[in-house]
Design a protein that fits this description.
With about 375 residues, the chain is of the alpha/beta class. It folds into two domains: about 5-55 and about 300-385, Aspartate Aminotransferase, domain 1 (Alpha-Beta Complex), CATH 3.90.1150; about 55-295, Aspartate Aminotransferase, domain 2, CATH 3.40.640.10. The protein has twelve helices and 17 strands. It has helices at about 5-10, 45, 55-65, 80-90, 100-120, 140-145, 170-180, 200-215, 285-295, 300-315, 340-350, 370-385; strands at about 20-25, 30, 35-40, 95-100, 125-130, 160-165, 180-185, 190, 195-200, 215-220, 245-250, 260-265, 320-330, 330-335, 350-355, 355, 360-365. It has a seven-stranded mixed β-sheet, sandwiched between helices. It has a four-stranded mixed β-sheet with strand order 1-2-3-15. Strands 13-14-17-16 form a four-stranded antiparallel β-sheet, covered by helices on one side. Strand 13 and strand 14 form a beta hairpin. The two termini are about 40 Å apart. The structure holds pyridoxal-5'-phosphate.
Length: about 375
C-alpha cells in the first residue's frame, strides 16, 4: 500500500485529509510526494511560526535533543525555566504551567479557576462562562467550554459547569454573571475556528471590568492568536487589558507540541504540589524550540508581521469574489462568494495550501513568510476567489 492507502486503512478517520502527501520543505514552501511545490499558507494551523525546518529553530532543538531529550518533572532542566521566565517577562504574568497542547493549557486554566473560586468564594462558584461559537479544545472538559453544539451532540455527558453567551453582548454576559456562581470568563480575542472573528474592543474591556468587579478570573485563550500571530505578541495586548490567566500553544513551540497556562498575580500560588501535572509537560526539546521562537518575536519583527498583514488585507478587501476580510496580523479570514471549500481546492490545485474556518477561507502563514512568496500565494488565491 502507498502512504495514503496505509493511512486510510490504519488511522482513525477523524480528519478529512487533502489528497496530498507532504515529504519535505523549507520555510513557507513544501514539497509533495507528487514532486509538486506548494506555498504553505496554513503553517500546520498556525504552528510552524517560522516555517518548516527553520535554521535557528532547528539548531536550538537539535542542540537540546543531543543533550537531554526528556527528564521527568522531578528534576530541573534549563529550557523550561528560561522559557517560563521569558513568557512572564513579556506578559507581566507570574508563573507558568507547561502541558503539551492547547486543550491541556485550557484544562489547567479551568482547574486553576475552580480552585481559586473554591478557596476564595466557595466550591459552588464553579461556573466558567465562554462565548457562543468559541473553540477551546477536544477533551471532554474543553469541549464543554467550546460554544458550538455540533461538537457536543454525541459525547454527552460533558463536564458540567459551562455557560455560553453571545460574543460582543455585554448585557448577556452580565446577566450570566448574575444568574450563575461564576469562577471565570474565558475568551478568544479572535475566534479562530469560529471563523476568524475578532471581538469588539468595548466588549473585551467591559468583560475585563466586570470580571475585576466580581473577583471573577479573566482567562484569555491565546492558543491560536498568541506568539506574534496577530502582529502583537499576544492578541490581548491590542485590547489594553491584563488577563488573570493566558493559555497558549500552537505557534509557541514552532512545530513541537507544547502548551502553556500563564498565571497572573491573583492565581500565581493557586496550584500547589500534587494539584496538576504532565509527564511530557515542559519537555526540554520543545521548550528549547519555544525559546528560539519567542526570542525572535521582537518589536521590529512584529512590525513586519503587521506590514505583511496590511498587504494581504489591501489586496483582498475589494478583490472580485470577496465579500469580507476579517482578522488581524497573519490570522486572516476571507468570506468568499463561492463556497470556501471550492476556493481552497482550487488553491491546492495551483500550489497553495490554505485552510477554512466555518464559511471562510483562513490564512495562517508562517510569520516570517518572505514577501515574494506571500505575493505569489495571494495572486493564486485572488484568481481562485474570482
Ligand atoms: C487549536 C485551539 C485549541 C486546541 O488546541 P490543541 O493543541 O489542538 O489541543 C484551543 N483553543 C483555541 C483557541 C484553538 O485555536
Amino acid at each position: 500500500m502507498n502512504v495514503q492507502q496505509l493511512d486510510n486503512t490504519y488511522i482513525a478517520h477523524t480528519y478529512a485529509r487533502f489528497p496530498v502527501e507532504i515529504v519535505s520543505g523549507k520555510g513557507s514552501e513544501v514539497l509533495g510526494a507528487d514532486g509538486k511545490r506548494y506555498i504553505d499558507m496554513g503553517s500546520g494551523i498556525g504552528v510552524t511560526a517560522f516555517g518548516i525546518a527553520d535554521d535557528t529553530w532547528n539548531q536550538a532543538v537539535t542542540d537540546q535533543l543531543s543533550r537531554v531529550q526528556h527528564m521527568s518533572n522531578l528534576y530541573y532542566t534549563a529550557p523550561g525555566a528560561k522559557l517560563a521566565a521569558l513568557l512572564c517577562e513579556r506578559t507581566g504574568m507570574k508563573k507558568v504551567f507547561f502541558g503539551n497542547s492547547g486543550a491541556e493549557a485550557n484544562e489547567c486554566a479551568i482547574k486553576v479557576a475552580r480552585k481559586y473560586a473554591a478557596e476564595h468564594k466557595g466550591a459552588e462558584y464553579s461556573t466558567i462562562i465562554t462565548l457562543e461559537n468559541s473553540f477551546h479544545g477536544r477533551t471532554l472538559t474543553t469541549l464543554a467550554a467550546t460554544g458550538q453544539d455540533k461538537f457536543h451532540a454525541l459525547f454527552q455527558p460533558l463536564t458540567p459547569g459551562f455557560v455560553h453567551t453571545p460574543a460582543n453582548d455585554i448585557k448577556a454576559l452580565t446577566e450570566a454573571v448574575e444568574n450563575n456562581r461564576v469562577a471565570a470568563i474565558m475568551l478568544e480575542c479572535i475566534q479562530g475556528e469560529g471563523g476568524v472573528l475578532p471581538l469588539e474592543t468595548d466588549f473585551v474591556q467591559a468583560a475585563a471590568r466586570l470580571a475585576k468587579d466580581k473577583d471573577i478570573l479573566l482567562m484569555i485563550d491565546e492558543v491560536q492568536t498568541g506568539n506574534g500571530r496577530t502582529g502583537d505578541l499576544y492578541a490581548y495586548m491590542h485590547y489594553g487589558i491584563q488577563p488573570d490567566v493566558i493559555t497558549t500553544a500552537k505557534g509557541l513551540g514552532g512545530g513541537l507540541p507544547i502548551g502553556a497556562a500563564l498565571l497572573g498575580e491573583k492565581v500565581q500560588d493557586t496550584l500547589t504540589p500534587g494539584d496538576h501535572g504532565s509527564t511530557f509537560g515542559g519537555n526540554p526539546v520543545c521548550c528549547a524550540g519555544a525559546v528560539s521562537i519567542l526570542e525572535r518575536l521582537d518589536t521590529a519583527f512584529l512590525q513586519e508581521v503587521q506590514q505583511k498583514s496590511a498587504y494581504v488585507f489591501n489586496e483582498l478587501k475589494d478583490a472580485p469574489g470577496v465579500k469580507a476580510v476579517s482578522g488581524r496580523g497573519l490570522m486572516i479570514g476571507i468570506l468568499p462568494e463561492k463556497p470556501a471549500g471550492e476556493v481552497v481546492a482550487e488553491c491546492l490545485k495551483n500550489g497553495v495550501l490554505c485552510l477554512t474556518a466555518h464559511d471562510r477561507v483562513r490564512l495562517l502563514p508562517a510569520l516570517n513568510i518572505p514577501m515574494s512568496v506571500l505575493k505569489e500565494a495571494v495572486a493564486i488565491l485572488k484568481a481562485a476567489l474570482s
